[in-house]
Design goal:
Layout: H1 3-13, H2 15-19, E1 26-32, H3 37-50, E2 53-60, H4 73-86, E3 89-103, E4 108-121, H5 130-138, H6 143-149, E5 151-152, H7 159-169, E6 173-176, H8 180-191, H9 199-209, E7 218-219, H10 220-226, H11 235-251, E8 256-260, H12 269-274, E9 275-279, H13 295-298, H14 301-306, H15 324-342, H16 349-358, H17 362-369, H18 376-381, H19 393-403
Parallel strand pairs: 1-4, 2-6, 4-5, 4-8, 6-7
Antiparallel strand pairs: 1-9, 2-3, 3-4
Helix pairs in contact: 3-7, 4-8, 11-15, 11-19, 15-16
Length: 404
């Protein structure tokens, strides 16, 4: 049988499932804790060994001083080193993605995805920063559950260390977001040794942890800044931007990803009991959803660029809109205007889809986008599809894997 015949047969046998895969709108997260760790651990190992991509994210008890933002990379490393020696890992997110189907006809790559959120508790004393507690509490982190059910990761025969040896020793591409911090904490707390004094020594030591044939480590923050040239590179922005771009590609029958989670009947009971679902739907009607005509006036520019607003901590606060989808909408509008101005397709998937629908008629595009004449005050009152539970390690690991 020829390769072409085999591919056609493969598409024929899976045509029903292939044609019925909807755009993904939620994340299924498996919480791993002290009570279920021994039962879920073998399943995690199987997922890691068979994955094409593995993403990892850590939630920490703090990051320390201002040296993390230094332009001097050596000074930044020293700040990370100090933090890793005094702070602790509170949870670990691991996402595995395995390519299970490729359709040339529909131009789709389907990945079976597993997301694990491990609660981890150090046996040794560590520093907790109030700002870190406030941040995690704001994003639904359950500290009582951590204390009661966190998996301890110290000790000689700790299974969690075995898990990370398997992860770092696999042939899958490891995906991180601003990953130097994560790698430093893992090095210190999972291997129980102090970090080297200099960044060069640390990089050399890291290389020894990975096998010779290891595929590149991919950092979604680096890719966003230096490959796709996004205007912002914080994780929520990068994910929502790539999620929207992927949906536009799907609607226009260009190459896109399909994300599927194992169906409930194919899961063990211990996995079913540990699953939590997080809603990540795009705005209703995307990408043709209406937006407020005065959105550019009321969106916080600092939040749009950095993912947080310093003014919120001040006495006066900030009354501007802090919404990542609004920030992305404004950026897409700027890109579309450039496309019309140049009278050619801009290097952006949204502008391409706009050009296909309205040609070079900017007025028609504006009428379609702003036809409902919404105002930002109405926008605030509307029930929006807001991603909940962001910045838990499992959710962040998924966003990192998808973005890469």
């Amino acid at each position: 049988m020829s390769d072409e015949q085999a591919e056609n047969d493969s598409e024929a046998t899976s045509s029903v499932s292939s044609d019925t895969v909807p755009p993904f709108s939620e994340i299924q997260i498996i919480e791993v804790n002290r009570d279920n760790f021994s039962k879920i651990w073998p399943y995690m190992l199987v997922c890691i060994k068979s994955a094409d991509f593995i993403a990892m994210d850590l939630e920490l008890s703090g990051l320390g001083g201002q040296g993390l933002r230094s332009k001097d990379v050596q000074e930044r490393y020293r700040a990370i080193r100090d933090a890793a020696h005094t702070r602790s890992i509170l949870s670990v997110g691991i996402t595995t993605m395995k390519l299970t189907h490729k359709s040339e006809k529909r131009r789709a790559l389907r990945y079976e995805t597993q997301v694990f959120n491990l609660l981890t508790l150090s046996e040794k004393p560590f520093t907790i920063e109030p700002s870190a507690l406030q941040f995690l509490a704001k994003h639904s982190f359950d500290f009582n559950r951590l204390i009661q059910s966190g998996v301890q990761f110290q000790g000689v025969n700790c299974p969690l260390k075995t898990l990370f040896r398997e992860l770092l020793g696999s042939s899958s591409t490891l995906c991180l977001h601003n990953g130097l911090i994560d790698l430093a904490f893992l090095y210190k707390q999972m291997y129980g040794v102090d970090l080297p004094e200099t960044l060069d020594e640390f990089v050399n030591n890291l290389s020894d942890l990975f096998p010779d044939d290891f595929l590149p480590v991919a950092d979604s923050k680096y890719l966003a800044e230096y490959q796709t040239r996004y205007t912002s590179s914080y994780l929520e922005y990068v994910f929502r931007r790539t999620q929207g771009d992927n949906e536009i590609e799907r609607q226009n029958k260009r190459y896109h990803l399909e994300i599927v989670f194992p169906t409930p009947e194919n899961r063990l009971k211990v996995l079913k009991d540990a699953i939590e679902t997080v809603d990540i739907r795009l705005p209703e009607g995307f990408p043709d959803h209406a937006i407020p005509i005065d959105l550019h006036i009321h969106t916080c520019k600092y939040f749009a660029a950095h993912g947080f607003c310093q003014a919120l901590r001040s006495a006066k606060g900030c009354k501007m809109l802090h919404d990542v989808d609004a920030a992305i909408d404004l950026q897409r509008i700027k890109e579309n205007k450039k496309a019309f101005k140049r009278k050619r397709r801009y290097n952006n998937v949204v502008a391409e889809s706009v050009a296909e629908k309205t040609g070079t008629d900017e007025a028609a595009w504006k009428d379609a986008k702003f036809e409902q004449r919404l105002l930002t005050r109405d926008f605030r009152e509307q029930k929006r599809n807001v991603v909940t539970g962001l910045h838990r390690a499992g959710v962040d690991a998924f966003m990192t894997a998808f973005a890469v």
